[in-house]
Amino acid sequence: MMKKAGVAILGLGVVGGGTYRILTEHREFYRRTQNVDISVESVLVRNKQRALDLGVPEENIAGSIAEVIANPNVDIVVECIGGVEAAKDYVMAALHEGKSVVTSNKELICKYSHELERTARRNCCGLYFEASCVGGVPIVRTLLDGVQGNRISEMMGIINGTTNYILSKMTEENEEYAAALAEAQRLGYAEADPTNDVEGVDAAYKLAILSSLAFHTKVPYAKVYREGISSVERTDIVYGKQLGYTLKLLAIGKNTERGVEARVHPAFIRNAHPLASVRDAYNAVYLRGDAMDDIMLYGRGAGALPTGSAVVSDIIYAATHSDIRYSTFRNTAGADRETKFISDFASAYYLRLSTEDQTGALAKVTGILARYGVSVMELIQKRPEGGAPDGPVPVVFVTHGTTENSIRGAVNKINASGIAQVKALIRVEA
Ligand code: HSE
């Protein structure tokens, strides 16, 4: 017998609108291929005209969240309104009523999944959030279903399209940060206030969610180290190119014998690394498992239809699975006491210094690096065109693998020495 599922969509913005379109256009296809009839029974919108323009019948436009929740034809509530205050209240109301929830809201899941999941468990309903991370790339389902036979030791991703677009422009068209950001805003990739994207907040929410799933332990947002791209300078991208590296905003999660680490920051990767070819607003996630070895998922991390695709896959899953699965880890507000988090990351580093062109200056700098156990792997010293013969010279070092504490100790010492100033410090990851 064909299953039936009634859906309510809260919010018909980019993601809600895309979801509505996919569900209505593919309804027959899902009946035939999934043996499920999914109907949109209700929508909740601020602007009624938007719903009418999308073709929602007037009788399906709800006047309040209470009306949506009380509708007996609604089995699954899809939250696409964004923000956390109202979204949390609406999702809680749906779960209390025993209705499963599908959400695209990364901030909500990152901050409150422990409360939402507890309520879902009590009321025997599901909480699905594929669309909260990396848009049309099915990374959540992959972690929950596709790779669960593995111990995942590492995740490395480009999980923010806005910053990837900006860095691609700076790299390929030699643009300054401000010009690349303005272009991203003009194209609608970056918001008028771009802080959440460019400072790595959006990527850190996603990394917290994904690394919790990958490593089977709660990784709260507060445990994610974060640096954005707003102070990246074009000159470092150019030096990186000379050395064979591409600069990306990486989200990195590791689970090693030392403990768990989660960090978002700009990083150089070798041009030959698969992530280096992820350009423009595209996203990708690279996973390493003990059995499968390395895999990479690639696609669009945002947009009406890609993110709508993720929402719809959750709706179909919720409508066709009676066994509800919850987190594989203790989903509490904070980190699990038994999990050790590492902040003294191991990495190689790119350093750009400005130094006075004096006899022995370089020897003093390398002497300080050596004292901190930091070994130099590559070096560029080239007077800029038009630079005064006795003026300051930029010197670029790439180190062998070291630790965060060692490099920071060496950088502080170099800056205090009066011989040189460190102008840029960028991790080199792969
Ligand atoms: N603003 C995000 C990005 C998309 O640029 O990737 C939604 O998470």
Strand and helix layout:
Elements: E1 3-10, H1 14-25, H2 27-34, E2 36-44, H3 48-54, H4 65-70, E3 76-79, H5 85-96, E4 100-103, H6 106-122, E5 127-128, H7 139-146, E6 152-158, H8 161-172, H9 177-186, H10 195-198, H11 201-215, E7 225-226, H12 234-243, E8 245-256, E9 259-270, E10 282-289, E11 293-300, H13 304-320, E12 346-355, H14 361-371, E13 376-381, E14 393-399, E15 402-403, H15 404-417, E16 420-428
Parallel strand pairs: 1-2, 1-3, 3-4, 4-5, 7-9, 9-16
Antiparallel strand pairs: 6-8, 6-10, 8-9, 10-11, 12-14, 12-15, 12-16, 13-14
Helix pairs in contact: 1-13, 5-6, 6-11, 8-9, 14-15
Bound molecules: L-homoserine.
The site of L-homoserine has 7 residues, from helix 8.
Describe this structure in words.
- With 430 residues, the protein is an alpha/beta fold.
- It has 3 domains: 3-132, 3-Layer(aba) Sandwich (Rossmann fold); 144-301, Dihydrodipicolinate Reductase, domain 2; 346-429, 2-Layer Sandwich (Alpha-Beta Plaits), CATH 3.30.70.
- The protein has helices spanning 14-25, 27-34, 48-54, 65-70, 85-96, 106-122, 139-146, 161-172, 177-186, 195-198, 201-215, 234-243, 304-320, 361-371, 404-417, and strands at residues 3-10, 36-44, 76-79, 100-103, 127-128, 152-158, 225-226, 245-256, 259-270, 282-289, 293-300, 346-355, 376-381, 393-399, 402-403, 420-428.
- The strands form 2 sheets. Strands 6, 7, 8, 9, 10, 11, 12, 13, 14, 15 and 16 form an 11-stranded mixed beta sheet that branches. A 5-stranded parallel beta sheet has the order 2-1-3-4-5, sandwiched between helices.
- Strand 3, helix 5 (85-96) and strand 4 form a beta-alpha-beta unit.
- Helix 1 crosses helix 13 (304-320) and helix 6 (106-122) packs parallel to helix 11 (201-215).
- The mean pLDDT is 96.
- The structure holds L-homoserine (HSE).
- L-homoserine binds at residues 160-162, 197, 202, 301-302.
